[in-house]
From TrEMBL:
This is Futalosine hydrolase. It is an enzyme of class 3 (hydrolase). It holds the Pfam family PNP_UDP_1. Keywords: Hydrolase, Menaquinone biosynthesis. The gene is mqnB. Catalyzes the hydrolysis of futalosine (FL) to dehypoxanthine futalosine (DHFL) and hypoxanthine, a step in the biosynthesis of menaquinone (MK, vitamin K2). Pathway: Quinol/quinone metabolism; menaquinone biosynthesis. Belongs to the PNP/UDP phosphorylase family. Futalosine hydrolase subfamily. It catalyses: futalosine + H2O = dehypoxanthine futalosine + hypoxanthine. NCBIfam families: fut_nucase, PRK08236.1. Residues 43-72 have a biased composition (Low complexity). It comes from the Bacteria. Residues 112-278 form the Nucleoside phosphorylase domain.
Length: 303
């Protein structure tokens, strides 16, 4: 599920879109499936490994995981539960499909959903998509554009989350901000599976895409002053990006027991508001390239 679903979907070249599934809200989940690879000669390995399926929901590209979110494949662990009837492409996504030689091969599927702007809209969209899906998901990706913290994340670079942090979920006090953990209730951090950010980074490095693995902050308000920027950096010195949806998507994914990661392409630098300096087009190009790289690597792997 992804907020910026167009770039996520456009990046997944080699994947074929099937008829959208409508959510009660009117938003749609578009399933993109990578066709099974060409058959290998009899007796030879099919060369596919055991491709898993990914979900990319995200509000910006809540492909997911978002970006958007993705769905599952036939998995001995039983994580995948393709529904009868499939997705309209003729075979249930993620199930092993016999190739021309009769050998079973699997293929990946990614469901892309535009989740809306802000943590609440993104959480609702992700939760509804997860709850009403005929498939189980291996991963939810919250993807889209975001603000980058200098010097970690320059314009056009990609930030892969190693933590998704609700940076304004707490209380303001005369002595400073208190996160919900300090107030004694709730949780303001979701963590992706430990190996996943590194694996995504490896794919981006091999693809020549500038990136950093770091915490991504979720805020309901785009930062627009030097004072607020300094405050966030003081509280989260490792953070490389801020956006408005990741924590909402992560809450929905966690409620369903599905791993989550956030991926942001940097459209602007976090700081005093300078709308003319935003480079949304370049960031969307970067996001599309990122999903092209992931769609031919990480999304085909067991997660
Ligand atoms: O202020 C404007 O004129 C304006 C025009 C277009 C878009 C915006 C946004 O605020 C987009 C929010 C959207 O993009 C993500 N995003 C991008 N940069 C940041 C940021 O620095 N801080 C927080 N969110 C950002 C966000 O996830 C939303 O989905 C404004």
């Amino acid at each position: 599920m992804a907020v910026e679903s167009d770039s996520v979907a456009a990046g997944l070249d080699g994947y074929a879109a099937s008829a959208p599934r409508a959510l009660p809200s009117g938003r749609t989940v578009t399933r993109l499936r990578r066709p099974a690879p060409a058959p290998a000669p009899r007796g030879a390995p099919d060369g596919t490994g055991a491709p898993g399926t990914v979900a990319a929901p995200g509000p910006d590209a809540p492909g997911g995981r978002p970006a958007s979110d993705a769905a599952g494949t036939g998995d001995p662990a039983g994580r995948h539960r393709p529904a009868p009837g499939g997705d309209g492409t003729g075979a249930p996504a993620g199930l092993p499909v016999p190739d021309a030689s009769g050998a079973a091969v699997t293929h990946a599927a990614v469901d892309v959903v535009a989740g809306g702007v802000g943590p609440a809209a993104a959480a609702v969209t992700a939760a509804v998509a997860l709850t009403t899906s005929p498939y189980a998901y291996d991963l939810v990706v919250s993807a889209g554009i975001g603000g980058g913290f200098a010097p970690h994340a320059p314009l056009g670079s990609v930030v892969v989350s190693d933590a998704i942090i609700a940076a304004d979920l707490g209380a303001d006090t005369p002595d400073g901000y208190l996160a919900v953990e300090e107030l004694g209730f709730g949780c303001s951090v979701h963590l992706p599976p430990p190996a996943l950010p590194g694996r995504i980074a490896e794919a981006l490095r091999e693809g020549g895409r500038r990136h950093v693995v770091a915490p991504v902050l979720t805020l309901s308000t785009v930062t627009g002053t030097a004072a607020r920027t300094a405050e966030l950096i003081a509280r989260h010195p490792r953070a490389a990006a801020e956006a408005m949806e990741g924590f909402g998507v992560a809450e929905a994914a966690a409620a369903h027991g599905v791993p989550v990661v956030e991926i942001r392409a940097v459209s602007n630098t976090v700081g005093p508001r300078d709308r003319a300096a935003w480079r949304i087009g370049e960031a969307l190009d970067s996001l599309r390239d990122t999903f092209r790289l992931l769609g031919s690597t990480v999304f085909l792997e067991d997660l």
